[in-house]
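## Example pair
The file below holds two records. Each record gives the amino-acid sequence first, followed by its structure token line.
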Amino acid sequence: MIAKLKSFLENETRLAFLLLVPAGISLLVSFFYKGDELLFNPAWIAVVLCGIPILKDACVGLFTRFDIKADVLVSMALIASVAIDEIFAAGEVAFIMQIGAFLEQTTVAKARAGIEKLVRLTPRIARLITSDGEKTIPAEEVEVGNLLRVLPGETIPVDGLIVNGETSIDQSVVTGESMPADKRSGDEVFSGTVNRFGAFEMKATRKDSDSSIQRMIRLVQSADAGKARIVGLADRWATWIVVIALASAGIIWYATGEVIRAVTVLVVFCPCALVLATPTAVMAAIGNATRHGILVREGDALERLAAVSRVVFDKTGTLTHGEPKVSSLCSLLEEMPEQDLFLAAASAELRSEHPLGKAIVASCREFYPEENIPEPEHFEMFPGRGVAAHANGRRILAGSPDLLRESGIPVSEPGKQKAGELSGKGATVIYLAVDGKFGGLIALSDTIREQTQDTVAGFKSMLVRPALLTGDNPEAARSIAEQSGIEEVHAGCLPETKLEIIGEYQHSGIPVCMIGDGINDAPALKKAHVGIAMGGIGSDIAVDAADIVLVNDDLRQLPWLLRLAKRMMVTIKLNLTFSMVLNFVSILLAGAGILNPVVGALVHNAGSVLVIVNSALLLTWQGGNGYLFSAAKQAD
């Protein structure tokens, strides 16, 4: 019970709410009950509950760091109001300021879980080969030069080189490539990547502390630490506001000789509306975004998004579906139509565990749902090269040109030319042979999302330049970029490379938005001015590293979200202008003796209400986006 209570009190948002409820009730009681009906003015409860935290923060900032923020001016107004026995005015000011602080706290999210998940992703064990046999040790005990064995389905414990065996590795954690990479003796492998099939032996070239996955953890941490946070406008102007407020109050006191007028100036000078101007607009915009399936995880993310002039996309899983599919089929046997060749290839791959083989089978079933794929009578797998099978009385080979060459089957010149064309477009080409003759080609590639072109065009219409940042090969990157309408392409990027490119943009003064989905995108998502992750297909770590999450992976929402962010900034500026004008007019009326502290507090808090109402209009703002409007209507 005590532990639960301690956990509740340690949560700043819950504690702020716990203080606001009795404070608000005490102000209501104080407003309606006067005189000797109660032992003391109930507004003291609001002063104590809401005012003391403000006074504490102001003193800590002022005396330990000489940091003058809005809470310093509020503290002066509180002390002055209490000094002349205007307790209700003091409680009201403290209460409205704590509401602003509460709204800000509820819009801020901590994103440390991503680093913890990266740590859990790190392989914990390694199979060490010794003269006495094989033994299992913790990954952190692996030394450079140790000989390790990795079984099918296991995560590679440290970086190293394959010394014996052939396999296929899912490297998406490090490179983001959608296609698994075939590996053989002499090839490099990375920690955190997954061995899809085929046991192999490897020699460790780095310790666990220097491995790829550990470097990525450090990249995420450093990117988060180096990311600038936006300071509230009221805090940025606080020093000048304090000076002007003190000067105005002093002049009026000196000119009129009435201390109450000076106190009223301090009360109306309290930046309540100024403090509320930003968080209320941000919360309303976040609420609108949430209704459309966009989760804003950082309170100031939309404020930062409104300033971006460059948007950088990851390729695999972001602009594309992230899964290989058959994109082209070419039969070079006159007696074998494309459909028959496709069915033969699917039959050969039916028992294959290779991701490309599974993709061929799935695509065949999608293209020809009414056809039954013949069961192979005999199946043989050649790791790193392909498969061989007998089906319907035919011997079928599907794999690399090396597999056909080993079987004495030459690839025809038209086949070589066609394979070159397909490879130039970034496709992975599977060579087929039937009964000892070269039969044709199957090309697999990651297909572009249907919304990609409209999304890129939407950003361009707002003068935001798109770029592609991917770990995939240059051919695949250029092909997807051309289909998407993106001119700037960076291919072959490791997580470190993506981080460097984001840093170069920022060093040039270009606020950049990074959009990605993979674990390898996490450091760049953290480093960027704004990071947006794909919530459906994206990894948990990428989602935790991002400021904004597209829950349903619909890219068409991104240009609308940028327009919403810009609209939010317009609302904030209107709120700020209104609050400053109201404060200026109130100061003149207070100096003239027309307003007393209580009425002054009511007037400028009425301005706070108008600020909230103006911000609330963002909740239903559609921005002329027909797609989102119709989607919202269907949801309702």
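Second record, same layout:
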Amino acid sequence: MDYKLLKHIDFPSDLKRYTISELPEICDELRTFIIEQLADNPGHLGANLGVIELTVALHYVFNAPYDKMIWDVGHQAYAHKILTGRKSRFNTNRKFKGLCGFPNPKESEYDAFGTGHSSTSISAALGMSIAAKLKGEEDKHIIAVIGDGALTGGLAFEGLNNASTNDNNLLIILNDNNMAIDPIRGGFNQYLTNLHFNPTYNKLRFKAYHFLRKIGLMDDGKHKSAIRLGNTLKGLCAGSDSNNIFEGLNIRYFGPIDGHDVKWMVQALNEIKDFKGPKVLHIITKKGKGYKPAEEEVTTWHAPGKYNATTGERIKTSSAGEPPLFQTVFGNTLLELARENEKIVGITPAMPSGCSMNIMMNAMPDRTFDVGIAEGHAVTFSAGLAKEGMIPFCNIYSSFMQRAYDNVIHDVALQNLHVIMCLDRAGLVGSDGATHQGQFDIAMFRCIPNLTIAVPRNEHILRNMMYTAVKEPRPYVIRYPRGKGILVDWHNEMTTIETGVGEVMMEGEKTAVVGVGPLLYQAQKAIERAKTELGISVGLYDMRFAKPLDENLLEIIANKYEKIITIEDGTMIGGIGSAIEDWIIEKGYKGKEVYKMGLPDAFIEHGTQQELYRMLEIDSEGIFQKIKTIDKQ
């Protein structure tokens, strides 16, 4: 497509040269640009199509990067990136060494705050707003854009509560699209829906307030009286009590307005941007706006993979004869177990389709619970269910579980409750990058008493670990990676696995590789190559549990081998390699050399999983080179 206007826009200063009447055309071109770019280079499509007009309006009205915009969740910031100097590089989005898929202050001064996880914008923006006041920057605008389900997170409410009591000029844009990855569930979403009931009233109220303020009949002292009058009128119109939670917190509320009317958005932002005190502009948008397939199948088109931009046909690679996703195996196994045991329930914080809990949710909706983007609540809710005799499977992505650390310790482990926590996306997740890498879970949980940490290397073991976790009344963590498994035929009859017992995969002579998870198959390739090319016989051992360690197996390994290579897809600081090395020292084994392989003390950038394994030298080639090097020592 010939982008007649967009081709001349590289920075917000270029955008400001156009008239307001030209902005709709710019929005259309920007929307088409994103649709065409993501067709071949997959990313988050639906959320970004929904904020085109908002993004254009914000950069038209405000003066970034002096004015700060915090995007929450950050996967809705593509248009922002394109308008802030990164259009020519947008084809590298989410690629190795390319643009990050989320706002990243290291990438651009226009990215005010890193927001790969949700619900952080209000707290961060409040801090920036107060900092601006303390520095005397009274003309600086701080805008938090919160949407795509992020307002269901508890931290957002903590930020709202604090914003209402501190002297600040924060502007909160509530991008209300009724969606996260899946449809939003919960009472607050219904509350927002109720606020939509009379858009004519809201628009008149907004204009009346601005007019009265302009002619001097409205000031900050009279504002609360106007709020009470307005809420009374709204309650009468609705036939019920419709008091506004934001204004109840002394945060001025404007809206809801049409988030796809860019001219009206510019007018609204210009009229309220200099109002003193915290304020909320509530806009209504449609996820996937302007692209029919994305509007009709919102969850599928949240991140659809490759597709034909013209026809909307998704391009799927053939999966016939290939292993299923670990997530798919989890979802089907959970339903099998739930059919056998009526105490089993499923809990997920806003990711039923992502973790495949939707399989059980479709079959047993009364026994599955999507609690919204609220990881801490998901864990403590699960603890409450377990306390009363239920068996909850709480599935949370590994990097998101970081947000529930206190809940795991105090509400599950300390009380020794039978909660089964399944950590999806453990290890390296790929193109989502540093904010989503599941690199810390083993180190994070290994120090917590009462926890069992199970790490399956394939789908059979995953199923057996889930089956075992149901049978054992203790806190149980099962971590497994994103993506395809190892086995094509994964429908094994489930059996229990003795907790804390590892497995011998291959016997060797002087050197052994010891680890957990699917990386052991990379090690197996390296060992087979070492035998063929170097004539070296290397042992291979799957610990299967990061906690408790199989001490009997470790004794066999320590007595038999001189050199031990540990391998894991988590951080080496506090990981299983560290645990094995500590055990060897503690037990007094002399002359044993331990070589740890895993993730370094660093945040890992984005790229495909294969690219990242290669970069970190923990693929089969890297393991082979490690074997070769230490054999010569």
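Notes on the second record: DSSP finds 26 helices and 17 strands in the chain. The longest strand covers residues 563-571.
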